[in-house]
Design goal:
The radius of gyration is 18 Å and the shape is globular. The protein folds into 2 domains: about 100 residues, Periplasmic binding protein-like II (D-Maltodextrin-Binding Protein, domain 2, 3-Layer(aba) Sandwich), CATH 3.40.190.10; about 90 residues, D-Maltodextrin-Binding Protein, domain 2, CATH 3.40.190.290. The chain is an alpha/beta fold. It contains 7 helices and 10 strands.
Length: about 210
């Protein structure tokens, strides 16, 4: 299971590396969001999750190691009304505009809600790429991973603004089913070490402590 904030390019590179090292292994990659990652592990729908969110679940026979942090930036269209008011932007001002939210894919455990103010309208979308495009079009507001925002800012598609109570960094985990102890799992764990191959693939997405 892979959370939706990872890009198709990174997933394709992961697949390429796995096939190079394990040419006879049958690989199936799915995308899950927030607690949907844990849901897929608990219900035996996935053996390994890269980028599981830091909402640790008791039991379930799941092992995990920290692989990095996602940093969030509040980003809006340059034409959005909030782009023209003083910073930090107050919650009363933010509440006037819908929050573009990626929907948690969990089915059997509680869904996680990202950043949302009390009384604020939310628009649910299936993944972070859709959320990005909606915010570029000015259809709503919200936090995005910093790597997405940087790319959009280089093209003058988004601007960042300071708000009261910004979203904190999110710890990302490599989670594996305890019963999945084969060569592939062990290799993936090893290659997320500091100088590992997989750390290199994802280094532009996640910050290391």
């Amino acid at each position: 299971g892979f959370p939706g904030r990872f890009t198709p390019q990174h997933t394709a590179r992961l697949l390429q590396v796995l096939r190079e090292h394990f040419p006879t292994c049958q690989i199936a990659i799915t995308t899950e969001v927030y607690n949907g990652v844990w849901d897929s592990l608990i219900n035996n729908q996935a053996d390994i999750a890269i980028g599981a969110p830091d909402t640790l679940l008791d039991g379930g026979g799941i092992d995990y190691i920290e692989i990095g942090m996602i940093r969030w930036l509040f980003a809006i269209s340059p034409a959005h009304p909030l782009a023209f008011i003083p910073e930090p932007i107050s919650e009363s001002q933010l509440r006037l505009y819908p929050n573009i939210m990626v929907e948690d894919t969990a089915n059997t455990i509680n869904k996680k809600v990202g950043w949302l103010l009390h009384g604020q309208e939310s628009i649910l979308v299936p993944d972070f790429n859709t959320k990005l495009q909606c915010q570029i079009l000015g259809e709503g507001i919200g936090f995005l991973p910093d790597y997405m925002v940087r790319e959009a800012m280089e093209k003058s598609l988004l601007v960042t603004r300071q708000i009261h109570n910004p979203r904190q960094d999110s710890r990302m985990l490599l989670a594996t089913r305890h019963s999945a102890s084969g060569q592939v799992t062990q290799w993936i764990k090893r290659e997320f070490s500091l100088q590992g191959i997989l750390t290199g693939i994802y280094q532009d997405l996640m910050h290391r402590a």
